[in-house]
Automatic annotation (TrEMBL):
Belongs to the peptidase M1 family. Residues 221-431 form the Peptidase M1 membrane alanine aminopeptidase domain. It catalyses: Release of an N-terminal amino acid, Xaa-|-Yaa- from a peptide, amide or arylamide. Xaa is preferably Ala, but may be most amino acids including Pro (slow action). When a terminal hydrophobic residue is followed by a prolyl residue, the two may be released as an intact Xaa-Pro dipeptide. Its EC number is 3.4.11.2. Residues 89-181 form the Aminopeptidase N-like N-terminal domain. InterPro entries: Aminopeptidase_N-like_N, Aminopeptidase_N-like_N_sf, PepN_Ig-like_sf, Peptidase_M1, Peptidase_M1_dom, Peptidase_M1_pepN, Peptidase_M1_pepN_C, Peptidase_M1_pepN_C_sf. Residues 538-854 form the Peptidase M1 alanyl aminopeptidase C-terminal domain. It comes from Sphingomonas immobilis. NCBIfam families: pepN_proteo. This is Aminopeptidase N. Keywords: Aminopeptidase, Hydrolase, Metal-binding, Metalloprotease, Protease, Zinc.
Length: 855
């Protein structure tokens, strides 16, 4: 069954008010719902309340029990005469048997909810669509010893004790919200509490709720929350609106976190951190996700989405907001590099594969499958392009207009673009193609310089590749930042230009070009496109040393490395000296911050190299990359050792940008020392592993050891496991590090790990750490025997029976068969066919697998 954007109609019935009364217990929870329903317009259609899996106990209309209802596809259909009624339903659900983790479920002995996108219908019968906005009153009753804390959206109103060891609490949320933002948590939880005074002087009570033993790991998240609240006031003029803001961390969660009004629920990996258990990367991710969910209070909650095709309205904008926030907290250049690396790793392959879709899709079978890198990350790039083209002041005017005009409503992507247009006066008609056309545009750039004339002409040509269902594309609006540098003097020959390419082809003239120009293009990654130029390896090396835009400088080095690696992997022996010289220059440049250098000197990933090739050859790519790593490691061994010694000599752990940069550099240097083939590499790594006073150093060393052969590898894995056997998040790292190993026996190791007593598919983090990580280990997953494909398909078929949503998310690597040789393609297709023909397959998996076969 397919849902289409074009078929949207407003709801037949609105529900301005709802009261929920829960009698909570893991085995059996009673839900009594009282809905005020109002007919929307003149029609005679019955009231249809979505449902899913609950046991219906009773239905009444205006206080009178009725039985003229029917159940259709899980929905309760009730004929009603007048235009306003009070509907009461009573249902029973079993949270402890909810393995899908959608609706009300049990995690670690506590009860929690996840409703986005369509989980609320599994709790009670309701019009489960985001354009039905209601005021919620929630009463929770539960055993007081087992569930001492009772939380829901909004403000706490009253609480009390009952006979039989029970207690109750009542919460009211004064803001209209769609049911996907409903949340409720009951459990034995303890809070790290704080306060925030808003710009208008209101005091908000903050609480990060976790199990007692985890409270010491919540300070970073609490600080990030306060910083986010201040940032949204300063940068977007958005103030928080309730008296309390609570966050609960749970171990079993299908994705990162959820922005429920006043009660965010988080995957514990995005809350819990201390130096001993969390890496610098984890700390950054926690701040980013805390900010992301907080920012949704405006971009998502106060203004929500009319329907799920508009998902990028809240997600693209909110990712853009959290990226800007993170950029403001540390190095903006390094943040941009990380975001672009993420986009290329996750979104570009999506755009180039069978599951390609525009940021505002036209149809879906299962909406959960559309929480993608395209909706989120390409969506953020689209908002970023608007900000770039309109400028900060007009972008802010547009955002103010959007928030003011659509506050309290369910809006569309069009409403957002129109607000930007109205506030700025810009014409965004063609720009709207970004919402409807899928595929990553390609831009070809060539520069012609006539020495003596002082004139240089840059020719830009764009093409947008065909994607499933979209064979022909129109040219898009591409904001491309450009600058020219003189090849002899290394001086800028022009100011930075923002070229807006909106035709298939354009020429841009530069005057007073007094020496051979070297082109710096798509600076800051101003447009999410692939750029092809005729720049030579010398030009790229030159830019990697002299460009004044840090992203462009990184990019030049990456392109140089990529060209070399693609040539090597294609059997055309290339020259490694240019890369090695460029790396050496970057290492020696005292003006660069260490975090930037660490990013710049890392080779592109195996999968990104594969993305550049007509047919991905995983073994040749691996060999080429290892050979270049060896050459860089060996030739510059003295430098790597110098850097390593310097970084290793830093004092005790500190969480500062400088200390983070040094730690990053240390692990990169260790990697190159190992790649050089040095005999003492494992000794060095093991020493780092043992001496580490923080997880970044410890995991960095472990990653290096896991790729090695010596006795240190086994010892480190044992020590790590024993030290952290009671910490689920760190055990995830233990599983993941092994699944990403470059050793030849990785598949066998992973097959053993599936049988490990700590492995379970029931916990999404654990499933992703092992199965998900293995599926992106390009060489191991794509073993020519097909054993990697078979292993992943087996696991996904098993996982689908428990948790379809998480299973379906892990399928895309199997859908990349067109990118491989005929042998591998046939093996991958066979696994997809096996999945599609599995009896009882979920619609989540069916959509992903069948589209992957057809696309
Ligand atoms: N809105 C949440 C966030 O972006 C994620 C919800 C994901 N839901 C889903 N069905 N995949 O933070
Ligand atoms: Zn979000």
């Amino acid at each position: 069954h397919v849902t289409r954007r074009a078929d949207y109609t407003p709801p037949d019935w609105q529900v301005p008010d709802i009261a929920l009364d829960f009698d909570l217990a893991p085995e059996r929870t009673r839900v009594r719902a009282t809905l005020n329903v109002v007919r929307g317009g003149a029609h005679d259609r019955p009231l249809r309340l979505d449902g899913g899996g609950q046991t219906l106990l009773s239905v009444s209309v205006d206080g009178v029990a009725v039985n003229d209802w029917t159940l259709e596809d899980g929905a309760l259909v009730l004929p009603l005469a007048g235009s306003e009624h009070v509907i009461e339903t009573e249902v029973e659900i079993a949270p402890d048997r909810n393995t899908q983790l959608m609706g009300l479920y049990a995690s670690g002995g506590n009860l929690c909810t996840q409703c986005e996108a369509e989980g609320f219908r599994r709790i009670t019968f309701f019009p489960d669509r985001p354009d039905v906005l209601s005021r919620y009153r929630v009463k929770m009753t539960a055993d007081k010893a087992r569930f001492p804390v009772l939380l829901a959206n909004g403000d706490p109103i009253a609480q009390g004790d009952l006979e039989g060891g029970k207690h109750w609490a009542e919460w009211h949320d004064p803001f209209l919200k769609p049911c996907y933002l409903f949340a409720m948590v009951a459990g034995d939880l303890h809070a790290n509490k704080g306060q925030f005074v808003t710009m208008s002087g209101r005091t908000v009570d903050l609480g990060i709720w976790v199990r007692a033993a985890d409270v010491p790991r919540t300070q970073h998240a609490l600080e990030a929350l306060k910083t986010s609240m201040a940032w949204d006031e300063k940068v977007y003029g958005r103030e928080y609106d309730l008296d309390v803001f609570n966050i609960v961390a749970v171990d079993d969660f299908n994705f990162g976190a959820m922005e429920n009004k006043g009660l965010n629920v988080f995957n514990s990996r995005y809350i819990l951190a201390d130096p001993d258990t969390a890496t610098d990367y984890d700390y950054d991710a926690i701040a980013a996700v805390v900010a992301h969910e907080y920012f949704h209070n405006w971009s998502g909650n106060r203004v929500t989405c009319r329907d799920w095709f508009q998902l990028s309205l809240k997600e693209g904008f909110t990712v853009y907001r959290d990226q800007s926030f993170s950029a403001d907290q540390g190095s903006a250049a390094v943040k941009r590099i990380e975001d672009v690396r993420g986009l290329r790793a996750a979104q570009f392959p999506e755009d180039a594969g069978p599951l390609a879709h525009p940021i505002r899709p036209d149809e879906y079978q299962e909406i959960s499958n559309f929480y993608t890198a395209t909706i989120y990350n390409k969506g953020a790039e689209v908002i970023r392009m608007l900000a770039t083209m309109l400028g900060a002041a007009d972008f802010r005017k547009g955002s103010d207009l959007y928030f003011d005009r659509f506050d309290g409503t369910a809006a569309t992507c069009e409403d957002f673009v129109h607000s930007m247009e109205e506030a700025s006066g810009a014409d965004l008609s063609q720009f709207r193609l970004w919402y409807s056309q899928a595929g990553t545009p390609r831009v070809k750039a060539q520069i012609a310089h006539t020495p003596g004339s002082g004139r240089a002409v840059l020719t830009l040509e764009q093409t947008v590749p065909p994607t499933p269902g979209q064979p022909d594309k129109q040219p898009m609006v591409l904001p491309i930042k450009l600058k020219l540098f003189g090849a002899e003097t290394a001086k800028p020959l022009s100011e930075e230009k923002l070229a807006i390419l909106s035709d298939g082809r354009a020429e841009i003239a530069f005057e007073e070009v007094t020496e051979r120009p070297v082109l710096s293009i798509n600076r800051g990654f101003s447009a999410p496109v692939v750029v092809e130029t005729d720049r030579t390896p010398e030009d790229l090396a030159f830019l990697s040393a002299h460009d004044d835009d840090p992203f462009a400088r990184y990019e030049a080095m990456q392109q140089l490395m990529l060209d070399t690696l693609v040539a090597d992997a294609s059997g055309m022996q290339s020259d490694h000296d240019a890369v090695i010289a460029a790396v050496a220059l970057t290492l020696d440049d005292p003006a660069l911050d260490r975090a930037f250098v660490a990013e710049a000197v890392l080779l592109p990933s195996e999968s990104f190299i594969g993305d550049q090739m007509a047919v991905v050859d995983p073994d040749a790519i691996y060999a080429a990359r290892e050979a270049l790593r060896h050459a860089i490691g060996k030739t510059l061994e003295a430098k790597w050792r110098g850097i390593y010694a310097l970084a290793a000599a830093q004092g005790p752990y500190a969480y500062s940008p400088a200390a983070k940069g040094l730690r990053r550099m240390k692990t990169v240097a260790l990697g190159y020392i190992a790649a050089s083939g040095a005999a003492d590499a494992a000794t060095l790594a093991f020493a780092q592993f043992e001496a580490a006073d923080n997880m970044t150093d410890r995991q960095g060393a472990l990653t290096s050891l896991v790729n090695s052969d010596g006795k240190e590898r086994v010892a480190a894995l044992d020590i790590f496991y024993n030290r952290y056997s009671d910490n689920a998040l760190v055990l995830d790292k233990w599983f993941q590090t092994q699944a990403l190993s470059q050793r030849d026996d990785t598949l066998a190791a992973v097959q053993d790990l599936v049988r490990h007593s700590d492995f379970t598919l029931a916990n999404p983090n654990r499933a992703r750490a092992l199965v998900g990580a293995f599926a992106v280990n390009q060489r191991a997953f794509n073993a020519a025997s097909g054993a990697g494909y078979r292993f992943v398909a087996d696991q996904l078929i098993a996982l689908d029976k428990l948790n379809p949503q998480t299973a379906a998310k892990l399928l895309p690597p199997l859908g990349r068969w067109r990118r491989f040789d005929a042998g591998r393609a046939a093996l991958m297709k066979a696994e997809l066919e096996r999945i599609v023909s599995t009896p009882g397959l979920s619609k989540d998996m069916f959509e992903q697998a069948s589209k992957s076969l057809a696309g």
